[in-house]
Amino acid sequence: MLLFASTASLLCLVPAVGTLLWVGPALQREEPMAALMHLAGTAIRILGVLSVTLILVVGVEPFRGKLAFLFWVAGAYFLLLTVEIVLLVGRPSMVGTHRTGLPSTTDSTTRR
Q1: pTM summary value
Q2: Which DSSP state fits 104?
């Protein structure tokens, strides 16, 4: 089980770090294509992870025919995808606040 868990984690971690390094700076600069870049990075990553997983399950002896390994890969993938989304997107912005977190002075709900 340790072999399955460590292999699945590394198999999903390497592309996740690559996606963070590729898309992170674009989101920091608020580029208009950043969301599309993140979506493309996620699609490329899932294809890569699925391809390597298929190769391992079909051709490498410790993983051959092991359904448990597939569950480890799925769990690691979705866990790291969740972490990546939280790191890239962050928490949702509050309505009526600027990036500083201070209330907006032009908020239409404020009345005198």
Answers
A1: 0.70
A2: P
